[in-house]
Amino acid sequence: MRRRIPILILGSLLFSAALVLATPGPPLAATDLGEGLVAAEPEFDFKDPATAGQQLLAILDQSPDMAKHLRAIRAYQKRFNENGEAVPRLRDLVISLRGSKRELAGVEAAFTIGLLIQDDAKETRAQYIKDLAPLVAGIRRNLPTEPWGHLVVAMLFGSFPELQGNWFDEALYAQSYGYDNAQVQLAVGSYLLTMDLSYGGNERLQWFIYLAFSRVLALMPGNEAWRGRIRNLVNMNLGIPGYRPSKWLRMLTAG
Questions:
Q1: Per-block average pLDDT, block size 10, for the chain (255 residues)?
Q2: Which of 195, 208, 202 is nearest to 244 (CA)?
Q3: Domain boundary assignment for the chain
Q4: Could you give phi then psi for residue 31, rounded to 5 degrees?
Q5: Do 31 and 187 touch, CB atoms closer than 8 A?
Q6: Residue 193 contacts by C-beta under 8 Å, 6 or more apart in sequence?
Q7: Whose CA is closest to 72, among 56, 91, 61?
Q8: What is the pTM of this model?
Q9: Could you give the CA distance from residue 94 to residue 110 in angstroms, rounded to a whole number?
Q10: CB-side exposure of 217: number of CA atoms within 13 Å?
Q11: Chain centre to alpha carbon of residue 99
């Protein structure tokens, strides 16, 4: 059966990637990947430092759920940020992912390097950006219909202007190719909400946020947990002084 791709989502609005983000956190950290919605929290147990790395690799190798992979990597980072071990562990993870034959390992490696840029010393940034560039190019070339690949690239473009990419187009590709995936739509809507803070509220951008979250509600009818998460995400933006919400966002908070 042919996948339905809404034509209007493929329209292109050219927003600059060089943005000063006035957000609760950078996109790689703030984008909602469904923590607590699709599995009980804490979803991952990385308590034992001796086995945590192998536990993470087992999740990445055995689960087909890409959203779970990204949640696991982010949980792993947070666990070892507590004792200052996140940077060397994430570096080791990138090495393992580069050696993996899994098709989406490059997406996970790019996501992990993005986290490293935020955690490691400032003088390492230029080398990480240099490492990211071919990874991003490979994702865009080899995974043209993979929504999580496009979303990770969008998060990287929106976080690191040195990559000189169009984060908005990548987010719309993710939204389009992930049309039947509620987790993709939730993540896209959340990511666009984060980026929308840079504009203090943009009606055109909020229209696509509305489309993403409305699609989630259509895919998860009657699920109050997902509906409540969307309402909370939107209300976080609405609670920021000076933010200009459109009627589309206000519709998502009704009821």
A1: 40 38 71 92 92 97 96 96 94 97 97 95 94 96 98 97 96 98 98 96 96 98 95 95 95 85
A2: 202
A3: 25-177, 181-255
A4: -65, 130
A5: yes
A6: 209, 233, 234, 236, 237
A7: 56
A8: 0.90
A9: 8
A10: 17
A11: 23
